[in-house]
Amino acid sequence: MQELFTPIKETWIYRVNPALKFVLFFLLLLIVLFQRNLPFVFHLTVLYGILLYGWSGYSWKKLSLFSIPMVLSFFSSALTMILFGKGVHVWWSWGLIKISEESIYHGLLLGCKTLCFGMISLTFLLTTRPIMLFYALMQQCRLTPKYAYSFIASIRLLPMVVEELKTRSDALKVRRVHFSGGIKGGYERLRMFMVPLFAQSIRRAQRVAVAMEAKRFQMNASRTYYYPTIYTKMDIVFLTVVAISLFSAYFFIGIIPYKI
Q: What pLDDT, on a 0 to 100 scale, did the predictor assign at position 166?
């Protein structure tokens, strides 16, 4: 699983401050969400695609695999709106299906928004390390350390849970435990796997809580950080690229002369 999310090379996007990247990507999502101009959203989709497929640092094979949910979401959302949307200028209808000029453009708009959401989210996910994100939120956005370190501890515990699940599965195979078929077998698997994992998770959570309390994470005193995060010239480059993308999308609106 870790190899799947390992890039071939770390591009300049990796060196952007994670807190700044998070804020800007969130603003870009809001811009796409409230935008109803199809040409503008279409050009944003192309530009975000260049950002993802050109500068994420991953191979085309992995990017193609990651893009499957986005493509499926695009076709499902667009076709649903096209086939069942409302419109005045009807091109073709049959039973519940009614394809109109308005439904086609609304479907394309919804599909492009879906692609934009997927590309922005995937770019942020693939080019940002979770640990550095929480360190940046603590240092640049003044996030309370007790909340940030709680999330960091949860992320660190996930590989342990996966390892325990594999160990439990191997132990049941060695003991030649067989499960029934159907719903009864599903219940048996749930009982044999989830109960021990749930108990171990409670023990770990209690140990982490005691450790954080011993290290005075409930206090609001200033703290030092093992990974300091600062603003660099890469942040200026990132801001410039985002600004150019927005202005370019607005400038090339005339290529698709239709406004919803």
A: 83
